[in-house]
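Support case: user asked for a sample of complex input and structure output to validate their parser. Sending the pair below.
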Amino acid sequence: MRKHIAAGVAALSTAFAVTALAGCGAPASGDVGTTTLTVFAAASLKGSFEDLAEQFEAAHDGVDVQLSFAGSSDLVAQIQQGAPADVFASADTANMDKLTADDLVVEPQAFATNTLEIAVPPGNPAGVESLQDLASPDVKLVLCAPEVPCGAASAKVAEAASLDLRPVSEEQSVTDVLGKVIAGEADAGLVYVTDVASAGDAVEGVEFPESDSAVNTYPIAPVTDADEAELAEEFVDLVLSDEGQQTLTGFGFAAP
Amino acid sequence: MPVTAPRAETAVGLPRWAFAPAAVGGLFVLLPLVAMATRVDWSSYWSLITSESARAALLLSLQTSAASTVACLVLGVPMALVLARCRFPGIDLLRSLVMVPLVLPPVVGGIALLYTFGRRGLLGETLEVAGVQVAFSTTAVVLAQTFVALPFLVTSLEGALRTAGARYEAVAASLGARPTTVLRRVTLPLVWPGLLSGAVLSFARALGEFGATITFAGSLQGVTRTLPLEIYLQRETDPDAAVALSLLLVVVAVLVIAATRRDRGPL
């Protein structure tokens, strides 16, 4: 029964990965004889990993990189249930540690860091200039819930600045926070630097020095029972290479 | 091949082949619930469902679902009456449009509500001038629930009204009863079971509302975080609590439906 469920999950993830690729104009390769490398990556890595996958495919003839993006904890659950991932890239060390504890990944390595930034709607209607401004009762602030990684980081930053932040909503994910800011429902939200970068003109970013107190490290690792162990290693190497790091910097990530 | 010949005096039997798929269908609905129940950590069940956040979420869910059921009745009963009893061009189109929230993914409903009642929405600015702030308030939760639950009330009541027909109403009117009296003394008592089941369905749908709420209302304990949102959040860190709360939600829903079924007798 378990196996069937895992197979179902895997089939679904693959379907999503295919859709994600197709939607972004990556070369569709349904040729017989192609090898498929399946990469599970945290949702915040979407843009950068799509670029990296294209680079990898360009350098490896007949290799098709399938990407599956979701929240890190969801991906961990899928891998624990036997989903056929070759590489896993997590948005935080806590989720990677769960797989390390089960011997499901091989030697995770940090490949990027991300910090928080204040996102405000274009024009900054509430005039937010600093982290301290977020504590004002006139600012409708939206944060991630403390249960999810971005919320834990927000709490850490607030604590470091001795601020009592009173959000009007504690969202499930960083994309939900960003959505509320883009829609203009919220005056400000705490999201990652990379989210502000990928949102383009839809939001403005306000940097704050206290963000140093919550630096999020992204680890990557080949999965222990990977079908394509060699390719998995090579993909990890690409991410850690100068070329890979440059791509990540382009999306707002900092070096580990 | 019918088991019993279809004669007026004897009950019409079901074709034998119908039982197997019916049983599979029943299992398909029940098995996931049983599977979930087997995952419940019974030793800590009570403490999981009575935590502060769980109690706040359950209370908020019951309150908002009750409020949206009232809103559905206030708006939905007249809607059903118009749809069932009036004849004018475009009524078929109107009937289809009323059903739209039923087929719309709730997230889409949430986005639509956001652009209507949100701060920058169609009505949002007017509301803000009037001093009403819908964003991130319990009102937003009730709006989202009413939006998705309204079609359930309208459809069941409209169906009941059509089945009941307008004969008794015509008789009452011919005896001199005014429209309001006919509605109160004849129509509503006739369709009472349909109205009740519509209201129960609306309540149950409101209780389970998730997508529109999380998109439109946000998530804050005691204000907008209803039980389904709490379950989704707990799943991140405490899967045991999520399963415990899911079972609680199922129990509440079953109790609500069972209570009204008993009132109506077996169907």
